[in-house]
Amino acid sequence: MSQSGLKTEFVFSGYGKNYVKVLQLRREGKIHHVKEIEVSTQLTLNNTKDYIHGDNSDIIATDSQKNTVYVLARQHGIESIEKFALIISDHFLRKYGHVTNTQIYIEEAPWKRISVDGQEHAHAFFFSKEAIRRCEVTQERGGIPMLRSGLKEMRIMKTTQSAFRKFVNDEFRTLPDADDRLFCTVVDSWWWYNSVNGVDFTKVWEGIKGIVLDTFAGPATTGVFSPSVQNTLHLTVRNVLSKIPQVEKMEITLPNVHYFAMDYNRFPKLNLKDYKNEVYMPTDKPSGNISARIQRSRLSKL
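The structure corresponding to this sequence follows.
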């Protein structure tokens, strides 16, 4: 088919370097500090002549973008992934007048200091995947940077104080009411700031992580009842917004990781009813997926 009469236009164009791994080692005498990150960059230019005409004269090579990340890490250090993402975005917009948009995504590897005989080690670490810290900065030329931070892959469980009942009962329902069930999920969340000026991003991240865990678990000896994943999600975001004023809105996704009790009635010859061990079958697919994005009410600002 001839393309001579075909008219097209670009809805979006962008290019960059993904998965640039950086390890920063900072030595304070015998005490060493490590921070490992993975950076992905994406730039949009004010023209598309590289796509249309094969003219590469305005392209900032993705290899150059990778090298820029290492140079900026050397020059500025990595205090937090949020501040470093802002530095990278600002650099590309100031250095290259034909860059119109930037998108910088960073994840931080969860290295923790090894403890020996109750004392933190000076220079030895282990990889503890409790939760992955991440952030993303998007910025248009002449505009303010739009920053969001988040955590992902934080798997949590409680073995009681969770129920799910009185939901729609129609011809498609086979799931019975559950007055007491195992509640397991993998937290995936983002939050947006009302300002990035003067924010201690690490303190905010640690604070939100703690609020998510506290809301889910409740007091150490008694716990807290959850009538649904939806309700726990809503309470979590309200607690974040009430305790951390720098956060404007938050999004959380909580997939159900099901644990089904084994039906030992299928083994009548084994007489397993006399055994007290509870055994469950973990099943993560298919899974329910509960999510919401909640923000401060516009009316509360008036």
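Helices lie at 49-53, 62-76, 81-95, 201-217, 229-243.
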